[in-house]
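Internal tracking record. Fields below are filled automatically when a chain is submitted to the structure queue. Please do not edit lines marked as system-generated. If the sequence contains nonstandard residues, flag them in the REMARKS field before resubmitting.
Queue: standard
Priority: normal
Entity type: single polypeptide chain
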Amino acid sequence: MRIGMPTILAAALAALLTACGGTARAVPTPILPTDSGLKVLSVDFSGQRAFDLLKRQVDFGPRVPGSRAHEQCREFMLTELGKYCDSTATQSFQAVVNGQTQQFHNITGYIHPDAEKLVLLMAHFDTRPFADHDIPANQNTPIPGANDGASGVAVLLEAARVLHEKLPNEVGILFLLTDGEDTGRTVRDMFKGAEHFAKTMPLELKRRLKFGILLDMIGDTSLNIKPEKNSEGVAPGIYDALLELQEMLGLRGFTTAGQYSILDDHLAFIEQGVKVYDVIDFDFPPWHTIRDTVDQCSAESLHVVGLCVCNLMLNYAAGRFSI
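SYSTEM-GENERATED OUTPUT FOLLOWS
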């Protein structure tokens, strides 16, 4: 996972925002739209199915790049996406992380890959090789990554099942499961998969990406997602729409109380001009510890996020949401 930004990394954030053409600013409390036209649509998203997909990933073991568990998880994700996507692929690349050249593998799946309008749905699947926020005796132990890694992937795999027959041909989805997000000990050595994909994607693909949603750490039992400052700077309407859909669905998990400033995979795409919102619950005490386990997550939290995101996608496809 990434870095919260209250104080220590403020300067780094300012530099990143400058590179992206933005400036750090206060984010107003989101206001629910009035008469926005959004509708609750029939969506068969199952939090329990998503939770089972989360457990499948954790059962492989820590998904550290270069490990057998990492390879098994890649095969699993490709198989699951292959059931519902029109095409899947592995994007392999090398990057220097922690002073060593390592091999990484992004996973992609497309629904309607030739659609003029594409939405990017993304999450990282790798897990941190060291529990640096744990007690000293555990700090060289890889984390299980139930929430920090598996939760976002689980929701996207279930979303692929739900959405593949519901989208019109002119609207498509690019599912991107990034590698090398959490491998580095410093910010400079993180987010490698997102950075590689964003920098190497064809201009024609970038033109068709209308917006994106990053899911990260959205499975914890006490779900409390807040607006994310960098995302609000480029795509404020996404969070407003998720809030409204949540209210219409009678769910809880997204809040207007407070905000985060997060360095995460979305910044690589924002820098390339793609509007990506980081949906994240950073209030997670087991973060970067060996206690990031399945029992810290819940099917209910996955259900809230998945149902809202799928409804947003279908409203966008129906022309009821735009950004």
